[in-house]
Amino acid sequence: QVQLNQWGAGLLKPSETLSLTCAVYGGSFSAYYWSWIRQSPGKGLEWIGEITSRGNTKYDPSLKSRLTMSVDTSKNQFSLKLNSVTAADTAVFYCARGGRLSNLFDSWGQGTPVTVSS
Amino acid sequence: EIVMTQSPATLSVSPGERATLSCRASQSVSSNLAWYQQKPGQAPRLLISGASTRATGIPARFTGSGSGTEFTLTISSLQSEDFAVYYCQQYNNWPSTFGQGTKVEIK
After folding, report:
1. Residues A42-71: pLDDT tens digits?
2. Which chain A residues touch B42 with a CB distance below 8 Å?
């Protein structure tokens, strides 16, 4: 059974860079696409972007200019960096496993609350 | 992008009763519709994909139906562990989008 465990800094100041990492245990890392999703009271659940084990990425257009995802297949980990954060980026961030053919998320990380405040 | 609209926002139901949740897409998503359950402090959990296929381990009291733009999640006899927030998600078009959720609370 696959498990996703995520970590990263939870309190940031405006203009700083958000960094999160998600480790995948069990299952095939290469057979799936790996996504980040955030949840805020104002916007609900939002898909942010995805990465494959080969490092191919797809980002939400509204975040594309600030977003970088990377993958480390030797550790079965993938990461997110979102720069120039503002209060609007305050949310709970989740990593999740998606299918090759669809953004259907069958396994999720535990979530990381992120607050952006001066 | 496709907008997913869920109704009602809150549903008050007594244990043992039936709950019916609705989800509408702003354009057809075929049967590429999923339902998730989220409890406080937890990540969403996949309940149903393909509009009607229960995920592994999901009890038979959860039934999904619909296609195109209109979808329904029915919980036939609510158990205490079913009180939660439910989200629909379309994955037919990129980017995938979620509804704003329906909270099922104890009446």
Report:
1. 889 999 999 999 999 999 999 999 999 999
2. 110-111
